[in-house]
Amino acid sequence: MQRYRYNSTLRKVLLLDIEAARELMIKVGLEEGFTSTNTIIISQLVDQLLNELEEITSTD
Description:
mainly alpha
Protein backbone atom coordinates (compact mmCIF):
# COMPACT_ATOMS: atom_id res chain seq x y z
CA MET A 1 0.00 0.00 0.00
CA GLN A 2 2.77 2.45 0.92
CA ARG A 3 4.63 1.77 -2.35
CA TYR A 4 1.48 2.47 -4.36
CA ARG A 5 0.93 5.76 -2.55
CA TYR A 6 4.54 6.77 -3.20
CA ASN A 7 4.31 5.85 -6.90
CA SER A 8 1.00 7.67 -7.25
CA THR A 9 2.45 10.85 -5.76
CA LEU A 10 5.63 10.54 -7.80
CA ARG A 11 3.59 10.04 -10.96
CA LYS A 12 1.63 13.24 -10.30
CA VAL A 13 4.81 15.22 -9.71
CA LEU A 14 6.44 13.79 -12.83
CA LEU A 15 3.40 14.64 -14.94
CA LEU A 16 3.51 18.24 -13.72
CA ASP A 17 7.25 18.46 -14.38
CA ILE A 18 6.84 16.94 -17.84
CA GLU A 19 4.12 19.41 -18.76
CA ALA A 20 6.14 22.39 -17.50
CA ALA A 21 9.27 21.25 -19.33
CA ARG A 22 7.30 20.57 -22.50
CA GLU A 23 5.78 24.05 -22.44
CA LEU A 24 9.22 25.58 -21.85
CA MET A 25 10.68 23.52 -24.69
CA ILE A 26 8.02 24.83 -27.08
CA LYS A 27 8.53 28.42 -25.93
CA VAL A 28 12.31 28.23 -26.29
CA GLY A 29 11.95 26.40 -29.59
CA LEU A 30 9.76 29.15 -31.00
CA GLU A 31 12.13 31.86 -29.76
CA GLU A 32 15.50 30.26 -30.53
CA GLY A 33 14.67 27.60 -33.07
CA PHE A 34 13.90 23.95 -32.59
CA THR A 35 17.51 22.91 -33.13
CA SER A 36 19.03 25.39 -30.68
CA THR A 37 21.21 24.04 -27.90
CA ASN A 38 18.76 25.19 -25.22
CA THR A 39 15.80 23.53 -26.94
CA ILE A 40 17.72 20.27 -27.28
CA ILE A 41 18.78 20.32 -23.61
CA ILE A 42 15.18 20.83 -22.52
CA SER A 43 14.05 18.10 -24.91
CA GLN A 44 16.54 15.72 -23.30
CA LEU A 45 15.13 16.66 -19.88
CA VAL A 46 11.62 15.85 -21.11
CA ASP A 47 12.91 12.49 -22.37
CA GLN A 48 14.48 11.72 -18.99
CA LEU A 49 11.28 12.60 -17.16
CA LEU A 50 9.23 10.45 -19.54
CA ASN A 51 11.62 7.55 -18.96
CA GLU A 52 11.22 7.94 -15.19
CA LEU A 53 7.45 7.98 -15.59
CA GLU A 54 7.58 4.82 -17.71
CA GLU A 55 9.78 3.12 -15.11
CA ILE A 56 7.44 3.76 -12.20
CA THR A 57 4.36 2.98 -14.30
CA SER A 58 5.75 -0.41 -15.30
CA THR A 59 6.38 -1.33 -11.64
CA ASP A 60 2.78 -0.66 -10.54
